Amino acid sequence: MIVISEFMDEAAVQSLRSRFAVHHQPDLVDDRAALLASLAEAEALIVRNRTQVDAALLERAPRLRVVGRLGVGLDNIDLAACDARAVAVFPATGANAVAVAEYVICSAMMLLRGFWQATPAVAAGEWPRTALSSGREVSGRTLGLVGFGGIGQLVAVRSQALGMRVVACDPALAPDLPLWRERGVQPLALEQVLAAADVLSLHVPLTPQTRNLIDARRIAAMKPQAVLINTSRGGIVDEAALAAALRAGSLGGAAVDVFEQEPLPKDSPVVDAPNLLLTPHIAGLTFESNQRVSSMVADRVARFLCVG
Fold it and tell me: Taking the model in full, what pTM does it have?
């Protein structure tokens, strides 16, 4: 039995159904009791980012052999607990990278130009042309990347094609690694990236070391008109500090796709902050990426169940 607790591309679900018993219920994640009850005979579980694959869940899944993750972040999966039970974990590494990279470039251009806020005024008969005539171009500006893995590298290539200079920091990559030169990206320390960036984009996992990595002190180290884009994980940016900087006008804008708590609570400090784009954890979700992610995970899970 394969249990799928969140939405998955139907073609991939059908490919699994042709070979295995499958229980696909996209809203199963919202009913923890029903989810746990469904796992008694499950050999595989396929999730996105909301299903918490923790020790309690694993206790209720005695036959579980593999977890497929429709995405790349693994902070909702207790890897140590899975390893202790010999449960394999397969993320969809790389399958949604293009979608995230395009989201970053799109958000950077929207935030620098600022026109995205004009629709209500224009629809009401106003004509804020003068106010919107000083938007900024991405060409000639500096993109700073925190994390230079696969997605960061795709963002770099696309931003360079638009005429941006790219600097990045990644402690996992030595500064003399040929990759930096091959990509035309300058490796810097984090504080140097913060100071140089007109656009700062985050591409790191959530770990104890990265939690609140971008806090009030580091936001203050950025250029006053810089924009910040977070498509990595909630908890990496101090949301209260970000909101305070936007309200004070000490940061030019931000696009936030991931949050400490999802869905975003109504009393979140970012709710009414100015110059802020909020999206519901969809940077990696497009029609095309959903097909790629679902197909990759379905293939890996099916292969494991057959030969693992």
Answer: 0.92
